[in-house]
UniProtKB/TrEMBL annotation, chain A:
Its cofactor is siroheme; [4Fe-4S] cluster. This is Nitrite/sulfite reductase. InterPro entries: NiRdtase/SiRdtase_haem-b_fer, Nit/Sulf_reduc_fer-like_dom_sf, NO2/SO3_Rdtase_4Fe4S_dom, NO2/SO3_Rdtase_4Fe4S_prot, NO2/SO3_Rdtase_4Fe4S_sf. The keyword Iron-sulfur applies. The lineage of its organism: Bacteria, Pseudomonadati, Pseudomonadota, Alphaproteobacteria, Hyphomicrobiales. It comes from Azorhizobium caulinodans (strain ATCC 43989 / DSM 5975 / JCM 20966 / LMG 6465 / NBRC 14845 / NCIMB 13405 / ORS 571). Coiled coil: none annotated.
Length: 550, 166
């Protein structure tokens, strides 16, 4: 993983000092709340329903074991002993006191962590594939470019007061695990005539006006990555709407002026700066690459005996089937740790679990951990021979729920229990759903389903791109939920379709169950996935069944 | 409001002139409309001319005047409206403007360094106390990640330069 040098450490310390001074001025009244708000937001500090919330950046979702321990420390020392991993490959803490925030930040900075640009109208933490540098599918490690973007975007003087927040995601694999088509900018690394470059997708996003992004350039040579991004951001900063916060995202600008006109403006700006100071030469890219310390992989072979023997245990085999993925290095594997236990809030981990995961990463996984946008954790480099022991250890910690990719692997925003924007609760609904589908046999029979829940139209739970999407709405002071089907966040991203009127909370779980029962009946064979069946049949047959009992 | 130029408190020699006002015999700051309409007359006077350029207007329209303008004032109606950052860089880096580039409006201390990095050299500071803090604010950071027209080296470039000199 990327190793910070003296420069990065100096910068982080200066950032902590700056924030400490800003908090001091807020507490003394020199800054009013309106003035303080954007400053705290840019350090990841929100004022939520009950308390300040701190969101910590995990650049491109990569954590060292020691960084995970620093997160556990913050959970224990400053919060209520747990943290919440989010769809932005971040973690957030919900109960930190404003007075203690500078100290918490200083503790984090010692581990190379911070809350920088996890909120505010700036370029947010760039996200990527949690399987980066581990999956055999990718053409190059996308984190190299995510790191290049991190450096360029960190406290960018021109782009720190944009019309709205700005999110960039990048992938280098055929299977998009970074949801690049629903980001302000999505970048897909691919090769053309032996050269590596990017497909540039702009204007995707969820929220109240969801859009799938549009490709504005099929192939951008990698050396021009930053100048092209700067041209896009400049076009947005100068021309994006600021009259209405709901219309201030780049997706609205692209939609209103048209993809063609938007592309023309970007290309015109880019032509002026493309060979300037932002040009990346091979030396610059190699210098970044040299800062990524790769694990010293052991020479091993696939399918070691101990693994083959362990698969005779059906519980292990079940977990292996949905949590373990192939690795690019023989004898290794990628492991997803489910943070979706039956009855638990999706994405939460206790300080003890975080410490334990850090220890397991050190023992079995070359000390590296990833955060996935599905609110799970990934150990990207695990020795196959250690899988049975890792599984036993995870099981003891309550972290071996064999549901990754299945119906109870739910994405959910914090909802009305924590968030001041929410109209409805998300977590209790997710908990009820995991209980209803707790039977692993049944969940396995239903197969791959992404169920995403958002507690309001801002769509932090990515409901638009859930195979089943659930959106909380308020009706006459009561919580209701709209249901969509057919959304996808992958390389064939599309938005789900609403099946009909919103249902009260008490009925949601039954409706979901009826939709899934309909699928099991209507599928051509067990190999036809839920999403494939929805695409083949349309939403009608599901809609009929969903409301049949009402 | 206190004007800070190159980090020091200075007296503002410019008078802001409304569109329907007669020009005084002094350095004058005029609106964009007036500049575009009366450019010849304005520059024919024996007094420096400055313009207040709104952040919704294309700053590249200033191209014909950059060599003659003494001040360009770019506007931050709210500090959260960051369009003038882009305008400043274009003015400095694209049009090669060398005169005074002034930030006006809701100009607060936590933005000073960003403004200077984008090319502003004069800050019309909104709060008295903030004007005292300019020097300190500009030293908040000693390291910068991205190149702008201010010419400061980025870590990436500094590292590469160090590697080359070995």
């Amino acid at each position: 993983m990327y190793v910070y040098d003296e420069f990065d450490r100096t910068f982080l310390q200066e950032r902590v000092d700056e924030f400490r001074d800003q908090v001091r001025r807020r507490l003394s009244g020199e800054l009013n709340e309106e003035e303080f708000k954007p400053l705290r937001l840019m350090n990841g500090v929100y004022l939520q329903l009950h308390a300040y919330m701190l969101r910590i950046a995990i650049p491109y979702g990569t954590l060292s074991a020691d960084q995970m321990r620093a997160l556990a420390h913050v959970a224990r020392r400053y919060d209520r002993n747990y943290g919440h991993f989010t769809t932005r490959q971040n973690i957030q803490f919900n109960w930190i006191k404003l007075e203690e925030l500078p100290d918490a930040m200083a503790d984090l900075a010692r581990a190379g962590l911070h809350g920088l640009q996890t909120s505010g109208n700036c370029i947010r933490n760039t996200t990527t594939d949690p399987w980066a540098a581990a999956t055999p599918e990718e053409i190059e490690d996308p984190r190299l470019y995510a790191e290049i973007i991190r450096q360029w975007s960190t406290l960018h003087p021109e782009f720190t007061y944009l019309p709205r927040k700005f999110k960039i995601a990048i992938t280098a694999a055929k299977h998009d695990r970074a949801a690049i088509r629903v980001h302000d900018i999505g970048l897909r690394l691919h090769q053309r005539d032996g050269e590596t470059g990017f497909e540039v997708i702009v204007g995707g996003g969820l929220g109240r006006t969801p859009f799938v992004g549009k490709t504005i350039r099929e192939f951008l040579p990698r050396h021009h990555l930053l100048s092209y991004l700067e041209a896009v951001l400049r076009t947005y900063n100068a021309g994006g709407r600021r009259d209405n916060i709901y219309k201030a995202r780049i997706k609205i600008q692209v939609h209103e002026i048209g993809t063609e006109e938007f592309t023309r403006r970007v290309e015109e700006e880019w032509a002026q700066i493309k060979d300037g100071a932002l040009t990346l030469d091979d030396a610059a890219i190699d210098a970044i690459r040299a800062h990524f310390k790769e694990p010293d992989f052991e020479a091993l072979t696939d399918e070691p005996e101990v693994l083959v023997a362990a698969k005779a245990d059906s519980a292990f085999a079940r977990w292996f089937g949905n949590s373990v993925a192939p690795h690019k290095v023989p004898g290794h594997a990628i492991v997803t740790i489910s943070l979706k236990p039956v009855g638990g809030p999706p994405g939460d981990a206790t300080a003890e679990q975080m410490d334990a995961i850090a220890d397991l990463a050190d023992r079995f996984a070359y000390g590296e951990i990833r955060v996935a946008h599905e609110q799970n954790l990934t150990l990207p480099h695990v020795r196959q021979k250690d899988l049975p022991e890792l599984w036993r250890a995870l099981d003891k910690l309550g972290l071996a729920t064999p549901n990754v990719g299945l119906i109870s692997d739910i994405i959910a925003c914090p909802g009305l229990d924590y968030c001041s924007l929410a109209n409805a609760r998300s977590i209790p609904l997710a908990q009820d759903l995991t209980k209803r589908f707790a039977d692993h046999e049944r969940a396995a029979d239903i197969g791959r389903v992404h169920l995403n829940i958002s507690g309001c139209i801002n769509a932090c739970g990515h409901h638009h791109v859930g195979h089943i999407g659930i959106l909380g709405v308020e009706k006459k002071d009561e919580e209701f939920y709209q249901i969509t089907l057919g959304g996808k966040a992958n390389h064939k991203a599309r938005l789900g379709e609403l099946i009909g009127p919103a249902v009260p909370e008490s009925e949601v779980v039954d409706v979901v169950e009826r939709i899934l029962d309909a699928y099991v009946e209507l599928r051509q064979s067990p190999s036809e996935t839920f999403i494939a069946a929805v695409q083949r049949l349309g939403i009608e047959p599901f809609k009929e069944r969903a409301y049949a009992a009402r | 409001m206190p004007l800070v130029k190159h980090g020091k408190l200075v007296t503002d020699a410019f008078v802001t002139v409304a569109d329907d006002e007669t020009l005084p015999d002094a350095p004058a700051l005029v609106s964009a409309e007036r500049l575009l309409k009366e450019a010849d007359a304005l520059f024919a006077r024996n007094q420096p001319v400055g313009v207040i350029w709104p952040n919704s207007k294309d700053v590249l329209d200033l191209a014909p005047f950059v060599d003659r303008l003494a001040v360009v004032a770019l506007v931050f109606p709210k500090f959260r409206d960051g369009r003038a950052y882009t305008q400043a860089r274009l003015l400095r880096e694209r049009l090669g403007y060398k005169g005074e580039l002034r930030a006006i409006g809701n100009v607060l201390r936590d933005q000073f360094l960003l403004m200077v990095r984008c090319g502003f050299d004069a800050l019309d500071v909104a709060k008295e106390a903030d004007a005292q803090a300019v020097e300190k604010e500009l030293k908040t950071y000693s390291v910068f990640y991205q190149p702008t027209g201010d010419g400061r080296p980025t870590p990436l470039r500094a590292r590469l330069a160090a590697a080359r000199s070995v």
